[in-house]
Amino acid sequence: MTKLNDFLRVSDAAEYLGVSPNTLRNWENAGKIVAHRHPVNGYRLFKQEELDEVLTAAQRPSGDSNDRALKPR
Fold first, then answer.
1. What is the DSSP string of 42-71?
2. For the stretch 32-68, what's the b/e string if a residue is b when 16 or more beta carbons lie within 10 angstroms of its beta carbon?
3. What's the predicted TM-score (pTM) here?
4. CB–CB of 20/12 below 8 Å?
5. Which of 2, 32, 55, 61 could pair with 27 as two cysteines, CB 3.0-4.6 Å apart?
6. Locate the Helix-turn-helix domain: which residues (predicted)?
């Protein structure tokens, strides 16, 4: 089972990616990134390993056919 310690809140995830919290919310609303919900309060949570994938994809050349930046699994 996944622990809540494996997740980042919106503000922490946004800082981790170097974007604003509103940008991260917009990406989630547009389906570009997956947000999980806290089981008690319903807040958005982001897995750090999924954010690492976004960062890795963003560093690839733009013509890379394996580019999965900001695409949900």
1. --EEEEHHHHHHHHHHHHS-TT-TT--TT-
2. ebebeeeeeeeebbbbeebbebbeeeeeeeeeeeeee
3. 0.74
4. no
5. 32
6. 7-57
CA distances from 8 to 5, 22, 43, 65, 73 (A): 8, 15, 11, 29, 18
For the chain, the domains span 4-59
32, 34, 42, 37: which is closest to 71 by C-alpha? 32
Please list the residues that pair with 45 across neighbouring strands: 9, 36
Tens-place pLDDT, residues 34-44: 999 998 999 99
28: β partners: none
Cα–Cα distances in angstroms (integers) from residue 58 to residues 12, 13, 15, 42, in the given order: 19, 15, 16, 28
